[in-house]
Amino acid sequence: AGPCAAAWVAMRTEISTAAAFITRLLRAAGGIGEEQLRCFRGCLQEVLREHYKHHWFPLVPSKGSGYRCIRINHKMDPLIGKAAGMIGLSHEKLFQLLPSELTLWVDPFEVSYRIGEDGSVCVLYESPQPGGKPTKPLENRTSCKEEWRIGRSSPSKNYNMMTVSS
């Protein structure tokens, strides 16, 4: 077990939390079988593990946060797209099933998400950091619990401003 194996063990919970969350969104939307969802989750975990391998800094958890951020903003996140492609799901299908605006932060000791550009940030997983630093109190989870279900139906107010001419 080399440094890569140690890094995988270190980020396993965060990655499986993120992959489970995206899978749960797909399951809630319906139309995908359990076996396909199980494969998607495994593929996404593998894609994330590979992507984060050299960008995981437990001593400085915010370092590399932008690199690890999973983002759908009227454009499919390439990591979700790649995992979906492995099970034969097209980007078009993903756009129908997932919120059009989703941000998922996968950092050491914390996984959180936001649906919509002005939605509240909800924590999916939080663990105390080694070294005894107190963690911030969790957000009010009751406000977050149902938000991912309704997020798909509320388009962002900034939608028209997001178009960029190439």
Task: Map the helices and strands.
Elements lengths: L2 H27 L4 H19 L12 H4 L1 E4 L4 H9 L4 H7 L3 E7 L2 E6 L6 E5 L14 H5 L1 H4 L16
Antiparallel strand pairs: 1-2, 2-3, 3-4
What are the defining features of this structure?
166 residues, Actin, Chain A, domain 4, disordered C terminus, alpha+beta, single chain, 4 strands, 4-stranded antiparallel β-sheet, 7 helices
Description:
It is a single chain. With 166 residues, this protein is an alpha+beta fold. The chain has one domain: Actin, Chain A, domain 4, CATH 3.90.640.90. Strands 1-2-3-4 form a 4-stranded antiparallel β-sheet. Helix 1 runs antiparallel to helix 2 and helix 2 crosses helix 4. The radius of gyration is 16 Å and the shape is globular. The N and C termini lie far apart (46 Å). It comes from Eolophus roseicapilla. InterPro entries: Anti_prolifrtn, BTG, BTG-like_sf. This is BTG1 protein.
**CATH C-level name:** Alpha Beta
Look at the structure and name the CATH superfamily.
Anti-proliferative protein, N-terminal domain
CA(first)-CA(last) distance: 46 Å
- Which spans of ≥5 residues are poorly predicted at pLDDT below 50? 134-143, 148-166
Biggest sheet record: 4 strands, antiparallel
Element order: H for helix, E for strand: HHHEHHEEEHH
Give the C-alpha Rg.
16 Å
Number of E-type strands: 4
The helix/strand class is alpha+beta
State mean pLDDT (0 to 100 scale). 82
Name given to the CATH architecture: Alpha-Beta Complex
Count, helices: 7
Shape: globular
User: How many discrete structural domains?
Assistant: 1
Strand content: 5-15%
